[in-house]
Amino acid sequence: MATITNPHDKFFKESFSRLEVVQSFIQEVFPAGIKDKINLSKLQLTNSSFTDADLSEHLADLVYKSEYAGQEATITLLFEHKSYREDFPQWQLLRYMTNIWQEEQKQKQKSSVIIPIIIHHGNTNWNKITMRRYFENPPDDLLKFLPEFDYLLFSLNDFEDYQIANFKNNFLSTTAMLLKHSRDEKEQFLSLISFWTEKLNLLEEAHEIDFIRSVFTYIDNGINLTTRDLTIIFTKVSNNVTNIAMTIAEEIKINTTIFYVKGLLKKGFDAAFIADTFELPVKYVEEIIQKIKESSN
């Protein structure tokens, strides 16, 4: 199988970079008192990344800006996802928030109120605690010196599958279900095959081929399924989607072969040895080696 670093991050960012996904997410799950005041027509994804060296492994932060209660540029939505339980999430969120405020200051913009949002899709429960608990409940007269703030937490484990299936936006519904079940055993994941085929059919009808490719690639890299398991799902959709699946499967096979050939080349093995190891024609391996050499020049 091909390997993508942080496949959950990559897929989350691809999905939640779509404006309609975030608009739908706000409408579907945000508290009424907040979502009713966010101007969804003014919602915009910023182009800036607010990661720094210490946050570089957390690449999925997404920042949206909008009007709130009729006031321009007063709210920033910071989306972060977690596939594992974080012991001190406020510290990481505070770093993001500080970076955002510093950038606004640099651009001579008014500081925005930031609503941090964590979407959790791990297989453990999320124990949300207040920031003051980090300090083992200090005396009340010291509380004013603490950077106390809250964040919105949405754990996909708290949503029933039928609720996710009924999300109005197909991108959001598919993304949320994939993230929720990303650590399922094969049998459990495939038990949802009617959902996968229904959503893939709808996406194919909408000509969203790039998103279908993202779904296939994410399942291949982020979920414990074989390429054969994947084709079981995708071949139940349409001939077009089946062809897409087969094409990506072949790309994955080729890229994986190139990856291992490159590794053996670095160790000094020749084409004949590599061909014998992978039971491939020597000429095919020689062609791969030539491509590797050309790409490195």
Automatic annotation (TrEMBL):
MF terms in GO: double-stranded DNA endonuclease activity
Positions of the Transposase (putative) YhgA-like domain: 6-205
GO biological process, alphabetically ordered: DNA recombination
InterPro entries: Rpn/YhgA-like_nuclease, Transposase_31
UniProt superkingdom: Bacteria
Record PANTHER family: INACTIVE RECOMBINATION-PROMOTING NUCLEASE-LIKE PROTEIN RPNE-RELATED (PTHR34611:SF2), PTHR34611
Name the record gives this protein: Putative transposase/invertase (TIGR01784 family)
Organism: Arcicella aurantiaca
